[in-house]
Amino acid sequence: MDQLPTDQQEALCKTNTERLRLMVAETGDVEDDELETLYRTALLGIVAKDIVSRRGSASRRRVRKVRPNTGDGIAGGI
After folding, report:
1. Of the candidates 34, 65, 4, which has an alpha carbon nearest to the alpha carbon of residue 13?
2. Which residues of the chain have pLDDT under 70?
3. Measured distance CA(55)–CA(58) in Å, rounded
4. Angle separating helix axes 17-27 and 40-61, nearest 10 degrees
5. pTM value?
6. DSSP code, position 2
């Protein structure tokens, strides 16, 4: 949770417990029967961890665009 920006932490803390359960269920990290037994703090931790991991994987997927080489020795044909 500490890895999230303050505004995102505050928003998560204001989220209804049942909504947190739905968010955790969407992660697929917890079995349905276990989901009902988790305390709010555990739900918050799982959701925060998922947000951080998705943010990290999204930044790894970004690909720097490079102009194609046209073969004239100048990148991008400029």
Report:
1. 4
2. 58-78
3. 5
4. 50
5. 0.70
6. T
